[in-house]
Amino acid sequence: MTVDKLTPIYIAPANPAGKALADLLRQQGYNIASLADNLKQGQNINNNSAQALPGAIVVIAAGSFLHAVAAGLLLRGFSRSQLLVADSSANIKTYRLPLSYRFKQAATTAITLVFNTLRRFTPQTGYLYYAEDFFDSNVLLAYREHRRQYPQEAWLLGRKLRQQITELQNDSHVLEGLSGAGFWRCLTAKKLIVDHEYTGKTFSLLRQAIPVTQLWHGLPYKALSGNIHYPHVCDETFISSSEWFNKHIFPKIFRAKQYLALGYPRNDALLQPAEQRDGINAEPLSLLRKVQQDTGDIIVYAPTYRDWGDNDYPLDLAELNTWCETQRVSFVLKFHPFISRKFADAMRLNNLDQLQKLPGLPHVYLYPSGKNVYPWLADARALITDYSSIAYDFLLSNKPIIYYQYDIEKYRELHGETLVADDDFVTGTVVHFQAELLLKIVLLLNYDETEEKTHKVVRETLMNKFLITKNLAVSGIVAYIRFKTS
Question: What is the pTM (predicted TM-score) of this model?
Answer without folding.
Answer: 0.85
